[in-house]
Design goal:
218 residues, single chain, mainly alpha
């Protein structure tokens, strides 16, 4: 794996273009994720004249909750993106377009989550947040699926079984936010809890066992 923007010159033009495209897309991705999490922190509103710590925390509870949720979701998609790029050797135009589409939504995470905690946000703000996260999850899964089936994008050492196990796990992400699109806000947590439990079991139990059961060399 080459270092981003290394000064290596002993390479062909095709190899230089491949490395440059790959490195720059990673750098842009990390920058957008950093921007989203930083913007969420900047949006936190601390009461300037709180009488005590309890009053300060109570007055900033909405913005702190928005920051925590925004940071957690950005981290979730960043980890998925990191794991994907770690298994790739190059990128092409369709994959780059998918990545840019996902990053455009990631950049909106602070705004969409912030609308949840506005006094007037209500159901409309909740649906906007759910739609953005659902689309982000769909695009993230599409990135994994495209990279898994497109010859030459992933490293040869990544087995077919691992590729499609990762695709299946990425495909669960949109399901986390589907209840938010279909149900009222006050029923979201109750409906989503079983899905979260299912995702945890699939990620921590089923997929690791399936990968360990894979014959060597396949």
């Amino acid at each position: 794996m080459s270092e981003p923007e290394s000064l290596a010159t002993a390479e062909s033009l095709d190899e230089h273009i491949r490395r440059h495209s790959y490195d720059r897309l990673i750098m842009l991705s990390d920058g957008i994720f950093a921007f989203a999490t930083t913007l969420a922190a900047v949006s936190v509103r601390i009461p300037p004249h709180a009488a005590n710590l309890e009053a300060l925390l109570r007055g900033s509870a909405r913005s702190l909750a928005a920051f925590a949720l925004s940071f957690a979701i950005a981290c979730m998609f960043w980890i998925s993106s990191r794991n994907l790029f770690a298994r790739m050797r190059k990128v092409d135009a369709p994959f780059t377009i998918l990545t840019l589409a996902m990053l455009s939504i990631i950049a909106l995470i602070p705004a969409t989550i912030g609308s949840l905690y506005l006094e007037h946000g209500g159901e409309v703000g909740f649906k906007l947040y759910a739609l953005a996260m659902f689309l982000c999850g769909v695009i993230n899964a599409a990135m994994w699926a495209y990279a898994a089936r497109r010859p030459g994008l992933m490293l040869p050492a990544v087995s077919s079984r691992e590729r499609w196990a990762r695709v299946a796990f990425a495909g669960v992400f949109p399901l986390l936010f589907l209840p938010a699109l279909l149900l009222p806000m006050d029923r979201f947590v109750t409906a989503t809890l079983p899905v979260i439990v299912m995702v945890f079991i699939v990620r921590r139990v089923i997929i690791p066992r399936w990968l360990r059961a894979q014959p060597a060399g396949r």
